[in-house]
Amino acid sequence: MSFRAHLLEESDGKVAGKLVELEESRLPEGNVTVAVDYSTLNYKDGMILKGIGRLVRSYPHVPGVDFAGTVEQSDDPRYRAGDKVVLTGWRVGEMHWGGYAEKARVKADWLVPLPEGLSAKRAMAIGTAGFTAMLAVLELERHGLEAGEERPVLVTGAAGGVGSVAVAVLARLGYRVAASTGRAQTHDYLRDLGATEIVERGELAEPPSRPLDKERWAACIDAVGGTTLARVLTQMAYGRSVAAVGLAGGNALETTVLPFLLRGVNLLGIDSVMRPYDDRIEAWNRLLSDLPMDKLDAMTEEAGLGDLPALADSILAGGVRGRTVIDVRR
Ligand code: NDP
Question: The CATH number of the domain where 197 resides is what?
């Protein structure tokens, strides 16, 4: 039985992908085979599709860091043929073949059941980016974020995948949400998701001019890193937390110890890849209760496997808005 896949090959140090038909015997080792319905486009997928950052060590390779689908065959008692499942993380799509194919074979430990009440498409509209946004919210709550904050919660890279879900969830939870974006054409979109104010990307992008600035934010979910994160740290209210999620604006961080010493600011690193089962179930349950589905639908675009090369260029250039689900049968 053959299936369609977006296969990456490396030649002379250059990585390129194409649509191919593969035999099932080519699938990697694993104890559950899944017929994939949807995968998605995340920033890391863009890097992998373009061979940036040496995230993939062995070619040929099927990328796609997340997927939702139906179990076809399972040697694990937790899953049976016909079960609906979701996968995010575990370096699938990186160290192991991923979701940009009609079939995937993975370890049962990496899967969770598709949350009840969620379609495969909506689960992937959330995908790794939305799942990570919820992990950030949970971590901020563990560090004291609660309803009734006077100051807004800042989301950087707000019009991207992580940012869009973060804005919609925080707004639903009743926070004032300041959405930082570099794209003027996304202001209405962000307000529709629930942002109460827009912060121009440029306002936060310059390196901080002093070690401590006016206390502006009750919390921050930062998808940008670099000088933006350095600047945000100087603007946090006393004792509050930044959940550092991403590096779309660079991975260097030049700061001073003063926000930590004199303001008691917490810098919380969020990693969605190696999350134990119970954490994943908690995050999916909270997404079901706290992410309005009409907002999720409004931030979702759909594409097919053949669109991936162009989408990779676009997401790395900061040009993708919200979430893009990949219908692998298209
Ligand atoms: P997107 O590309 O969808 O969103 C990133 C957003 O960042 C863009 O939409 C843009 O927002 C902003 N941006 C892009 N380039 C720049 C730049 N040069 N300077 C400042 N801002 C920029 O990506 P995702 O939302 O999927 O991922 C965001 C980050 O989070 C990535 O670095 C990704 O690797 C990371 N990530 C980390 C995870 C983890 O487990 N820690 C899991 C998932 C993602 P706007 O147009 O609004 O300014």
Answer: 3.40.50.720
66, 155: one domain: no
**Residue 317: count of CB within 10 angstroms of its CB:** 9
Q: Is residue 282 part of a domain?
A: no
Q: List the one residue out of 236, 273, 276 whose CA is nearest residue 258.
A: 236
pLDDT of residue 276: 94
Q: Report the pLDDT averaged over residues 253-281.
A: 97
Average pLDDT value for the chain:
97
CA–centroid distance, residue 158 to ligand 1 (Å): 8
Residues 28 and 102 reside in one and the same domain: yes
3-class DSSP assignment, residue 259 = helix
| Domain membership of residue 95 as a residue range | 2-114+299-327
For 50, left (φ over 0), alpha (ψ -120 to 50), or beta? alpha
**Looking at residues 191-208, what average pLDDT do you find?**
97
Ligand 1 pocket, mutate which of 132, 197, 224, 324 (most atoms under 8 A from CB): 224
**76 plus 158 within the same structural domain:** no
Inside any domain, residue 120: no
Among candidates 198, 193, 219, which has minimal Cα distance to 300?
A: 193
| pTM of this structure | 0.97
pLDDT at residue 74 tops 90? yes
Q: Quick check: is 231 in a domain?
A: yes
Q: Is there a domain that residue 291 lies in?
A: no
What's at 247, amino acid-wise? L
pLDDT of residue 236: 98
Pocket of ligand 1 contains residue 245 by CB under 6 Å: yes
Residue of 128 and 54 predicted with greater confidence: 128
Number of domains forming the structure of the chain: 2
